[in-house]
TrEMBL record:
Species whose genome carries this gene: Rhinopithecus roxellana (Golden snub-nosed monkey)
Annotated Polar residues bias: 1-10
The protein's name in its UniProt record: WD repeat domain 93
Biological process terms in GO annotation: electron transport chain
Coiled coil: none
Region (Disordered): 1-37
PANTHER family noted in UniProt: NADH-UBIQUINONE OXIDOREDUCTASE (PTHR12219), WD REPEAT-CONTAINING PROTEIN 93 (PTHR12219:SF17)
Length: 686
């Protein structure tokens, strides 16, 4: 509360605006003022007038002034930003090269080989990537397709759409035919229906895994795919199909505005439901690891004697920790963090899994009695939510075999994110504490451990095809490299980092994009590497912008944007697909009703086709992106063997070494068990 200045009997002096009579220049000092003018005295300090205001007017005045000051600061900040943007060189924005116009909302899409698969209402549609022509539309569902995967098997494509009921179906697409293999989790009783959350197909298409959820439980089903039988079946069908006219594909430069409804359907493709393909073979069911509880064993010797082999060692299941010790530890934890634990706790969600199919390496060898083709997947790697362990399961088993892990990689903190490179040679495990471990699976040793800056936690990891900067240009080596990799890490605070590892030098982390502080509309929502352009990646921001970044130079090369009438409906979650084989990507745009256009009156959604080779800035990069072998020899760059040669040499070496290992291993375990029983008997005698 403020008080009047001076004595309590002092009268309020009127401001200048309320004085009577003509204005006069006041004398230089207060002593010379005439006493008769005391009632008309003018305050020298303007704020002294506010102290005399009664409440609540003084508070209202302060709030108004505060609001004015804050508004003025925002205005100045926007003006400074506008001036800074005008002074900066804006990247060149390229429009799309083509467009697929749709009347129904697309929910998902995938790209494989020369085809685009778009999932939507009651099924999915196949389009030609080059000319946007509709090849076939499979719309036989009562619900929409929410997600879709497409895996390249060489000459064939395996398609896996998931509908709103959570049912996943396998389709086999070969030349002119689309075949339905199986609805993996479809049941007659809807009350027992399970939901497919995620799926993965091995390199080469020999195995497939499906993460299913239902009845408060979650598990992973693993199947072996009889792709050789499928290929024989479709190449020699029992029913002959009618000859169909071949349609010539259009070139890239002729791609324009094409409507899917107006285009004539390609007569090359059809659904062949009369041909029944062999069903996938169910080989394994994997459940999350059980919570660690008290041991029933009475002594460490008894624990050791019960272990038949080394499978599952390190998972924490076989231990000698009693229930009383767990309870004591829980009491200490509750007492230490009571102030943080007091309050309402939300129900803990079900654990989910991230899994990969791994090729043979020094870390997990195939048994000697198992013979398979060179480079065939042999191990499934998986980690569960809030788990410290990365489990390894052999795929050379049947459903009768017990699903125990053959190997366990424990980590110091729960694994949050992981990623496997496209060549299956490198694996990154990112823990919840911000520590990343990079493994060289081909050599069988970790390339190193790196930590993100303080306060940064991993959101997603994206491997880049290894590139070199040669004569100021990013280029791919002509052959595979050895123990050299690069990947981009997107953190939860929207900062972007580059992780590089080279042999035994250890990984290094550098910042590509800082965390946005003032301009939150530039927050990075998603990133995607561009395999056709060395060292390039797409960055999708919250404001709807799509930019192409040069990772080596850490600068924006250009930008891409759909037409003004088709902005991104959900810019913080864009729907896009980057082709792994061609220099292009697809982006969904929704028609804006604010923009009136008579031509697009019936079109609500579009998928835009962007070609990097159509951009003058990128044309030379995509065509000349490989370093000749002679230049690599001059640079003394370490080369690696091809994947087939690497697997062949490894298998030959492992066959020679593992012939005697199983016998030695069993003999070693039997000797240790006998020794433990002997010690236990001696302890009982005492």
């Amino acid at each position: 509360m403020s008080f009047l200045r001076g004595s309590q009997t002092q009268k309020i002096r009127h401001p200048i605006g309320t004085r009577k009579g003509p204005l006069e220049v006041p004398p230089p000092t207060e002593k010379d003022w005439p006493k008769e003018d005391e009632e008309d005295h003018v305050l020298v300090d303007p704020y002294e007038e506010l102290d005399s205001l009664p409440q609540p007017y003084r508070m209202i005045n302060k709030l108004v002034n505060l609001l004015f000051d804050q508004s003025w600061e925002i205005i100045e900040e926007r003006n400074a930003l506008r001036e800074a943007e005008s002074s900066q060189i804006q990247p060149t924005v390229f429009p799309p090269l083509g467009e697929i116009q749709l009347n129904k909302m697309p929910n998902c899409m995938a790209v494989s080989q020369d085809y685009v698969f778009i999932g939507g209402a009651k099924g999915f549609t196949i389009y030609n990537l080059y000319n946007a022509k509709q090849i076939y539309a499979w719309e036989k569902l009562k619900v929409d397709v929410t997600s879709i995967w497409a895996t390249d098997l060489g000459n064939e494509i395996l398609i896996a759409p998931v509908d709103e009921m959570g049912i996943i179906r396998l389709f086999y697409f070969y030349k002119e035919g689309l075949y339905l293999v199986k609805a993996i989790n479809e049941v007659d009783d809807t009350s027992k229906q399970t939901t497919c959350i995620k799926m993965e197909v091995s390199q080469g298409g020999d195995f497939a895994a499906f993460l299913l959820q239902g009845a408060g439980d979650i598990w992973l089903d693993v199947y072996k795919l009889p792709k050789e039988t499928w290929l024989k079946k479709v190449e020699n069908p029992q029913l002959t199909s009618n000859p169909k006219k071949k349609v010539r594909q259009l070139q890239l430069n002729t791609l324009g505005l094409l409507s899917a409804d107006q285009l004539e359907m390609d007569t090359n493709a059809c659904f062949k439901g009369d041909i029944k393909l062999s069903l996938p073979v169910y080989i394994m069911k994997i459940k999350p690891p059980k919570p660690v509880t008290g041991t029933p064993f009475k002594s460490p010797l008894e624990v050791f004697a019960k272990i038949k082999d080394c499978y599952g060692m390190g998972s924490g299941q076989n231990h000698f920790i009693k229930d009383s010790q767990w309870e004591q530890q829980a009491e200490i934890f509750q007492a230490s963090y009571k102030k943080y634990l007091d309050g309402e706790w939300e129900e803990e969600p079900l654990s989910t899994a991230t899994f990969y199919f791994l090729l043979p390496s020094c870390l997990f060898a195939m048994p000697t009695e198992v013979k398979g083709p060179t480079g065939m997947t042999c191990v499934l790697g998986i980690h569960w939510t809030r788990s410290h362990n990365f489990f390894l399961y052999s795929l050379n088993r049947t459903l009768k075999d017990k699903a125990d892990p053959e190997g366990v990689w424990p980590c110091a903190a729960p694994i949050a994110v992981s990623q496997l490179s496209c060549s299956s040679s490198y694996l990154v495990l990112a823990c919840e504490d911000g520590v990343l471990t990079l493994w060289d699976l081909a050599k069988g040793f970790p390339l190193g451990v790196a930590a993100l800056p303080q306060g940064c936690f991993c959101q997603s990891i994206h491997f880049l095809k290894y590139f070199l900067v040669h004569k100021g240009q990013n280029m791919y080596p002509e052959g595979p490299v050895k123990s050299q990799t690069k990947c981009v890490v997107l953190c939860t605070d929207a900062s972007l980092h580059l992780l590089e590892a080279s042999g035994t030098q250890g990984p290094t982390i550098s910042v590509l994009v800082e965390r946005p502080v003032k301009h939150l509309d530039k927050t990075i929502c998603a990133v995607a590497p561009v395999p056709a352009l060395p060292g390039m990646m797409l960055i999708f921001s919250k404001n709807g912008s799509v930019c192409l970044m040069d990772v080596a130079k850490r600068e924006i090369i250009c930008a891409f944007a759909p037409p003004g009438a088709f902005p991104l409906e959900v810019p913080w979650k864009p729907m896009f697909a980057v082709s792994p084989d061609h220099p292009c990507f697809l982006l969904r745009g929704d028609y804006s009703h604010e923009t009136e256009s008579t031509d697009n009156a019936g079109i609500q959604y579009s998928v835009f086709y962007f070609n990097f080779e159509a951009c003058p800035l990128l044309e030379n990069i995509s065509k000349n992106c490989t370093i000749p072998q002679r230049d690599l020899d001059n640079m003394a760059f370490p080369q690696a063997l091809s994947l087939e040669k690497r697997c062949e040499r490894f298998l030959q070496k492992s066959y020679r070494k593992l012939e005697k290992n199983p016998e030695k291993e069993q003999e070693h375990w039997a000797r240790l068990q006998r020794y433990s029983l002997l010690l236990q008997r001696e302890s009982f005698k005492k």
